[in-house]
Amino acid sequence: MKMERNDKGKFLLSMYYLKQAERIKISGFIRSYIITNYTEFNLDKLSDSKLLSVLKAIHNYKDTTPEEKLFIKELINKLNESKREEREYKKEIERYLMSEPTWFWLSFQRGISSIISMNIVTRLDINKANSVNSFYKYCGLHVQDGKAVKKEENKKSDHNPKMKVLMRNIGKALIMHKHPKYYDIYVKKKEQYSNVEYPLGHLHSLYPSTYSESDTKLTKSHANNRAFRYMIKRFIKDYWEVCVSMKNKADKLEAVEVSTN
């Protein structure tokens, strides 16, 4: 059985998430332990590094028993170890991405981290897609009956739910970091969708539980969701075009090599 090129990438990504989950679980236990036994500490929104500082302070208390010191030392070591392993897999992911043709483009997209990039390159395969619409459908960005698709109970999805989550994460990252291209698209589209006036009854016919017969404009949240989705589709379309360009170059290079051999 032939291993696919991105199998290693998927493995690295899985291991990164596994180590991340371990680190979060250990941090959660430490927070619970401190809150239960040392009520004088305020742990709201403390980072792991500050959490370690609190643990070290407790460890150095004169009233901390030898048994407690040993346990706290074990917690500190476990948290440090999980953080180190998570960092190592992130470095492995970054090294892997260096060999990906589309990484050059992804690395210049403000807000798109190496982890998001790894999800994109390992899950969106241009060799398995006929057009950008194939990407849209796989990611749950397509439209059915004039509406964005939603998962229905007791019905198999026609898209990958994990990809839909990834699309939301991409959108949030682009907005949070105010990407110079996509954030601008989002802002302009949100204003545009907010100002569109639909015929009487049109919105009610599509969304009877949200709009009345007399409603002619989208709600703020609906306009925002449409703009958010439009922005993500533009990002995916641009990524598709980069993939196509890279594939065409690779095909031409392969054709030249075959002709010269």
Explain what the structure shows:
- The protein has 261 residues and is an all-alpha fold.
- It has two domains: 7-97; 103-260, no CATH class.
- It is built from ten helices and two strands; from the N terminus they run ααααααββαααα.
- The chain has helices at 7-37, 48-59, 66-97, 103-106, 114-123, 132-138, 161-176, 182-195, 202-206, 220-260; strands at 143-144, 147-148.
- It has a two-stranded antiparallel sheet.
- β1 (143-144) and β2 form a beta hairpin.
- The longest helix has 41 residues, at 220-260.
- 20% of the residues are buried.
- The mean pLDDT is 88.
Side-by-side strand order of the widest sheet: 1-2
Distance between the termini: 28 Å
Number of helices: 10
Radius of gyration: 24 Å
State which percent range the strand residues make up: under 5%
Count structural domains.
Answer: 2
Q: Return the structural class.
A: mainly alpha
Give the tally of β-strands: 2
What's the pLDDT, averaged over the residues?
Answer: 88
Low-confidence residue ranges = none
